Amino acid sequence: MKQYFHIVTYGCQMNVHESEKIAGLLARLGYESCDKIEEADIVVFNTCCIRENAENHAYGNIGMLKKLKAAKRNMIIAVGGCLPQQIKKAEELHEKFPFVDIIFGTHNLGKLEDYILEKRARKKAVIKIEECDGSVIEGEPKLRTSYPNAWVNIMYGCNNFCSYCIVPYVRGRERSRCCENVIEEVKGLLNEGYKEITLLGQNVNSYLSPTGGMKFNGLLDKISSLDGDFRLRFMTSHPKDFSRELAEVIAAHDKICNCVHLPVQSGSDRILKAMNRKYTSSDYLKKVEILKKYVPDCAITTDIIVGFPGESEEDFRQTVKLVEEVDFASAFTFVYSKREGTKAATMPDAVPEEVSKRRIMELIELVNSRTREHSARFVGKNTVVLCEGYDEKKGLYLGRNEYGRMGYFESKEDVFGKFVDLKINKANGISLYGDIVNVRG
Ligand code: SF4
Fold first, then answer.
1. Which of 115, 236, 433, 434 has the most crowded Cβ, counting Cβ within 10 A?
2. Closest by CA position to 107, among listed 79, 85, 75
């Protein structure tokens, strides 16, 4: 009899890709994917703890399975990822949700098959959290779900210890994969027909191959020199590691998308210092200047936190000023979320909720107006998108251009997985609408 799995993923792209690895492990055990949670024989929650709301969201969804588990007692429920990796959280999870069968952390995802077999053999819950700085595991099976895009981890963990961030505590220290393994994986994906490769890491530009010492610039250069009609992206970059050499490599290769995510977090030097970001606003602006010099049409995107402990009105004004100056193509804005175990969690002078709310609303308005302006610049011009699906609601195909803008269009033929040249006639927010000029690939 067929057995099915269903994975619920929270958080960033790194987690989405880790869910592809979990899916690969489950497929190796003979499970098949299903869309409906009620039909699953095993449900895996791949959690995130970067922000409190992602954690609460996971708690809510896990709690909702209590009834289903009571009605379907052989169903296995597993909770993994960053949330249980935090100190004492696995025990808390077990206490709160005794019907959860398996709890595992970020460092032992690769052992999930063993835990499932262990759970099948006994009644008790299997709770396994490994406390280590992590390792690099090669050759894990992956069940990729995002064709024509493929995600490739090049490094794991983080050494930066930004004072607000839990990642170094739950993902361990930085460790890079050997460049040969990364390049082989990319070659394999290109042979399988993938058209867009995104290199992933908490801090991709501090990549350093343990064999031969190849740095991130070198890796980008090597991969973008491979044969084939494909695009290359990477995320996320830390501004302190962003160099002129990296800007030069982006400029030298058409295959590397002219789109760089460079999280600034704040425009105030005082707050950047308290955040332990290791750069000032003027350092950041200099990096942006270099990037714009080498890649003039580069879409620069960012992350910004408002309401960090001690953030004054003046600090916030400096953030607004920096956003205006850089002219970001888009930005993810967040209200500071206190994470127990981080340095910032012990800082005094919490910003009142209503102040943070007012600041985030002002920032969102500013960012949205810039986003609209950037989108409007495409109207009347041609842009190439990689078709990644069909929007049933809109009745239109969709695909992203190299700058990260989503383009929607009509097509009589199935253009899924193809590069499509569009003439843009309308922009709406971050979306573009256009007509096909040419189809490639
Ligand atoms: S660079 Fe800072 S924000 Fe990014 S993962 Fe590392 S500690 Fe967290």
1. 434
2. 85
